[in-house]
Structure formats: C-alpha cells, structure tokens
Specification:
The protein has about 350 residues and is of the alpha/beta class. The chain has helices at about 15-20, 25-30, 40-50, 60-65, 80-95, 110-125, 170-185, 200-215, 230-240, 255-265, 300-315; strands spanning about 70-75, 100-105, 130-135, 150-155, 165, 190-195, 225, 245-250, 275-280, 295, 330. The chain has three domains: about 15-50, no CATH class; about 65-170 and about 300-325, Response regulator (Rossmann fold); about 170-300 and about 330-335, Rossmann fold (3-Layer(aba) Sandwich). Helix 1 crosses helix 2 (about 25-30) and helix 9 (about 230-240) crosses helix 10. The longest helix has 16 residues, at about 80-95. The radius of gyration is 25 Å and the shape is elongated. Residues about 1-10 have low confidence and may be disordered.
Length: about 350
C-alpha cells in the first residue's frame, strides 16, 4: 500500500531567527514593523523570511493581542464597475501586506437599510474598521457606526455618523471642470450625460460641469442620467442628438462608449461632428476609434493613501490630517481634439 508523504513542517520564527543569526524577539519586531531594529539586521531577517518562505501566523497573533485584524468593506452598487473594482484591488493589496483580512459585502444600489445591515453584520464579526466604497445618498440619513470603529470612506463627503470617519478621494469636481472647459473650445454649449443622481460621484461631476459653464457664462442644459452602462449611454446620446448636441461630457467611459455608438449610428463622426469626453480613462479608451478623451484618476493611489492612514490608526498612531483629494487629469485624444 502506498504511503502518503509527511506534511511539510511550517516554517517558524525560530527557524528564521536561526537563519538570520538573531533572537526570536528581533524577528517578531521585523515582522510587526516595530522600531529598534537596524536597517542591516532588518534586511538580514527579511532575507531569511524570503528564503525560507516564512508566513506569519496571524491567527496566533490575534489570540495574543485580542484583535481580529479584520477590516469590513461595504461596496455599493456591485463590484463590476471600474471604480469600485479598482479601489477594492488597492485595498486588498494594502491589507494583505499589513496582515489584515477583509470581509466584503456588496450591496444593491439605493439600499439604505441594506447598507446599515451590512455594517452591523461586519461589526458583529469583529471588524476593527469599516471601509465604504462608492457611497450613495440615502436622503440625508447617515450610516450608524459604533464608537471606537475606524471608518474610511472613498469619497469626498462623509456618509456615517462616526466622528472617526475620514475620506480619501480624487478631485472629481476639478476633473469635470477641466473636461467641460476643454469642450467649450469645441462648441458654445456642453451637454452632460451623468450617472445615477443618488451616487455622490455623479453629483461631484455634475458640480464641476456646472461650475465651468457658469464661470464661462454659458448655458447650463439639463443633464441626462444614465446608469453607468454603455446601453444607457446610447439612449442618452440619442436624446442629446435630437437636441442638437455638439459637445458632450460623459460621467464615465462605459457610457461614453455607448454615446460613440449612437453618434456613429446617426451618421455623425465623434471628434469631428460631436466632441466627447469621458471619465475614468479605462485602459481601452486609447484604443477606441477614435481614441476617447477622458479624465484620468489614479485609483490605486487613492486606495494606498486611504489605507495607509487607516492602518496607522489601527496600529495606534494619532490620526493625521485627512488626506487631500488626489488630482485628476484630462487626457485629450481624438474624440475631442481641438479643431
């Protein structure tokens, strides 16, 4: 009868300490990123960790410290949209490096009660912090979070009752303002296809668009709302073409792709007959025909800035100043190239 091979023994801190020629306490300090370790010793210990394939036992650490090292994430409107997916990827990277586990709950759009239930569930599971991604407006009602729980919201407006809530975002208002000013060089009126109006991101982009038009003394037409999808972009663009639209700012690239299809179906040319600018600068934007102008946001940088502040707070640091919104940048391509 064949015998099974013995299971490989898990590499321990003792093994790392022996390989690096240091004490087990020094290895613990390096693993937990504590002070009082010289750079030379830290490098030697890290080399031993990498060579041996050591992985810290976070479950054991939780028993000792009585901390869960778990962060709860509430993402609204699903996890298929580019913004929430990109932010979540950055959050996962930073959490994993710091030894934290994530519990993620995806909720339906517009479900205020569902959001509160999700937060309550995550807190009951021992989450030390709550992250809210792509928040929406629930009629002025704030999400209730117990005292002592850190809260990071990826947006420019607070959405919880917690005094510990802080924000991380890109400057969407400035990005929308820049896109609209650019389009005013193409036509005296700039129409807007916005996202769902209960999304705070939609409101920021509407605000930037309106600010730019008012500053220029231009007409401020009624925006047409889509649902972030290409299909809704087609329907909205058809309506705008009936109005005689010649320059359109679109609140995300997916809807802008739909708008380009509607322009083509109408026998018109994007970038020549109708100027178009999207938002988010998807990887595909530069490969469309014509390439799509778009407002670029660094989602990973936003995640990194927010998570590093959150992790510092969880590890006992005094809260720093709230991170400033990171800049957005208009990338001009043929869909709105100056004539």
């Amino acid at each position: 009868m064949p015998t099974s091979s013995p299971r490989a023994r898990r590499v321990s801190m003792v093994d790392v300490a022996r390989a690096a020629g240091v004490s087990q306490k020094t290895v613990s300090r390096v693993v937990n990123d504590e002070p009082y370790v010289t750079d030379e010793v830290r490098d030697r210990v890290q080399h031993a960790i990498d060579t041996l394939g050591f992985r810290p036992n976070h479950a054991a650490r939780a028993l000792v410290t009585r901390r869960s090292h778990r962060i709860g994430v509430v993402t609204m409107g699903g996890t298929t949209l580019h913004g929430p997916v990109s932010v979540l990827a950055g959050v996962e990277d930073e959490a994993r490096r710091a030894g934290y586990a994530l519990s993620i709950v995806s909720t339906a759009p517009g479900g205020g009660r569902e959001i509160q239930d999700a937060v309550d569930s995550l807190v009951s599971q021992g989450a030390e912090a709550i992250i809210v991604s792509e928040p929406q407006d629930f009629g002025g009602r704030l999400i209730d979070v117990p005292d002592g729980i850190e809260v990071l919201t990826f947006n420019s407006e607070p959405v919880t009752s917690s005094a510990r809530e802080f924000l991380a975002s890109s400057d969407e208002v400035a990005g929308a303002r820049e896109a609209t000013r650019h389009l005013l060089g193409f036509a005296p009126r700039v129409d807007h296809i916005c996202g769902p109006t209960n999304w705070l991101a939609s409101r920021s982009r509407i605000r930037g668009w309106r600010d730019a038009l008012e500053a220029a003394g231009a007409e401020v037409p009624d925006p047409i709302a889509g649902d972030w999808s290409p299909r809704s972009g087609v329907a909205a663009m058809r309506e705008l073409l009936d109005r005689g639209a010649r320059a359109v700012f679109v609140a995300n690239d997916q809807m802008a792709i739909g708008a380009m299809s509607a322009i083509h179906d109408a026998g018109l040319r994007t970038g020549i007959d109708v100027a178009l600018v999207g938002f988010d600068d998807l990887d595909v934007a530069e490969f469309l025909t014509p390439p799509l102008s778009s407002v670029q946001r660094d989602f990973r940088a936003v995640s990194r800035v927010g998570m590093r502040e959150l992790l510092a707070r969880l590890d006992g640091s005094v809260p720093g100043a709230p991170p400033d919104p990171l800049p957005s940048r208009l990338v001009v391509r043929a869909s709105s190239a100056p004539r």
